[in-house]
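Two proteins were folded this term; both appear here.
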Amino acid sequence: MNRNHLIGFAVVFAVLVILAFIAWSLFEIHPGIRKVPPSREARANEYLALDHWLASYGIPVRKESYGNLDTILQAQERHISIQASLFRWTEEAVSHLICWIEDGGHLFLFLDLEYYEDMDFWSDDLPLLMLEEFGIEAGSGTSPQGHRYDPDSPRFSQNISFTIPEESDALTVKDWTGLARLVRVKRGAGSLTVSGRSRFLLSTYIKDEPNARLAWNLFIAPDNTGALGANSRETGWLFIRGTTRVRGIWGSLFRLGNMAVPVVSALVLIVTCFWAVIPGFGLVQGDAERPGKPLRERFLAEGRFLKRYGALGVYRDRYIKEIKRRLLRKEGTCEDEEIHRRLSSFLQRGTSVLPQDICEKNIKYREFPRTIEILRSILERI
């Protein structure tokens, strides 16, 4: 190997070693944290974690965004969860639900109805009438201690609480203030469980131990615990609950910015473009044509150019090529001897120009006009 190559290789290797040592001494590699936003499915379904959790235990889950009496009549599930504001309450529906529970159905009712404190009544009293049939009385959830969440208790809704008779054997779950936030009452072969807004089942909170423990006892617990989730693997759960509307790109733009500005700008741009492209009414006034040079001057200029480089034979070759083409089509031959013979017959008597002179490669400038005149006359006679 060449000595210069060895020296260059050694220098490059030494520089790389020095750079590696500097990087190892001054820089440090540590793992980074990248925030991944929730998927569109998770944002649209706030109970997605609960659905996947139940599915992992082999419990079928079916969801409806709205329900009525027909939904209950057609349901094959024996475990139903109803969000009160998304169900059409009628006296017939209340009567059927009571009979359905007594026949072995398990109902989980979420009371998310509005409570008007100044008027002291609920926005819909039919669900409350059904609760009275089970000995449950719903009231405002305001606590003297104020609104505060205890990390050791499930995340209940703070706008509703329940009261049951002291002699009742109903199961109650209370928060840190001592108010009953969830009540379960058995009736016949079934049971009714009622609570406020189901915050403890949301994907955001169900990962906490108190919420997960309560969800286990409500939906997955085995038979010997006597919980609501008993035998739910056989028929599954029907959830009548709403979905969250997920904003797309246009919704985000409308929410974060003023859409009037880009809309008006787009309209102005469109009108301006059309105004510039579409001509006014009447004749379109084009640009006046510039007078060009006469044809004679163009040919003279081209001839001077070809004369300078000794290429005047280009014109002569075009004539001879056309003569050969016409003779081949008319006589069936285009041999040079035949071309010379025919050229001789077309030449006038007494001329000093021979056929060989016309077809030779080089052509003199003084003989060029006469040669072209002869070829043109021959071409007209064929």
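Next, the second protein.
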Amino acid sequence: MKKSDYIRKKESYCIQDVLSRIPLSSMDRLIAPAFEFTENDSKAVLGVASMVDHMTDEGFQITKGLSLNGYVHCGHGLDLSLTSIDEIIKEVHPGTLVLQDIREWDVDPRDFRDGKARFTEVENLKDHPNIFRLTILKDSQQRPEYHQKAAEDMGCHAWIVYYHPHIVQSLATYVRPEHLIRTYHSIDPSIVPSFKMNRNKGCLLSGAISRAYPLRSRILSFSKLLQIQVLRHPGYHRLGCHTPRFLEILSDYKVHICTSSRYGYALRKLIESSVMGCRVITDLPTDEILPEIDENFIRIHPDISIDKLKEVIVSSIDSYDAEKQKEISERALKFYDFVNVTRRLSEDIDLLRKSYNG
């Protein structure tokens, strides 16, 4: 059965369909702050060391990766163990500064995140128009007023985003579309287990269950009928990273169901699954194309019937081709290696920095 049998043109699900189903933001766009370009190539990335022990470690990979591509890694317990913005600027004299998503370090005592990672004097960044200032914006649907104020406080020149810019700017209308830099989730090749050519398990469903994942919730309720295995979410914590174990589990399966949430996000599971040799069944919008792995996606509509989904699952398992999946896996591992992802990100930041003033 061909992919076209699953999604006909009239049934395709694109980004505009995603946006038609969710509440959108209506906040005023922030005014672009002034930037005085200099030839200063010193760079700082402000991260959170304890993110290496979060349930999933992509948040650590992006700052660690930038540090392997010319940035000084600043923050509690990192290479430059400072959390004072004033002290970091005095020490590094950066021409470019990337600040981790505020949610990861502006925490209260009840949060599982590390309170020692809090950065101070962030508002003083605005007093340095010669520093090109960026922050990471991950889940743009969450607390837009909070993130708007955070960007305004630091005088943000640009945002680094993981998901499609059109979706991001629709959920967080305070951002400036021309100042969004797209990156992708990444993977650490050093923890990727060997590719398994012979697999004895069929289809897996994994991930958190909430209102943000309506298709995933519906599939879970019919998991026995669909004859799929379910891997429950371990919860969010910083008691040790689950990614190595998750990759090991994926390596036994032929197919992984990776829903994209009601927001149409290109979640990390899509990359992890492709690296581990799984075929991917997903409701990712058809016009959200992921480099090197898009051919691995068997796209379905989020309103697909359970009977039709069962057909898709059975066909996907029966047509599994280990040689083809191994080739996709090798391409994916090279492209989404966190050092390569952040090298491209660093280059894109440099380009925007140079063109910011037109």
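Residues 1-10 have pLDDT under 50 and may be disordered. Residues 18 and 229 are 27 Å apart (CA to CA). These notes refer to the second protein only.
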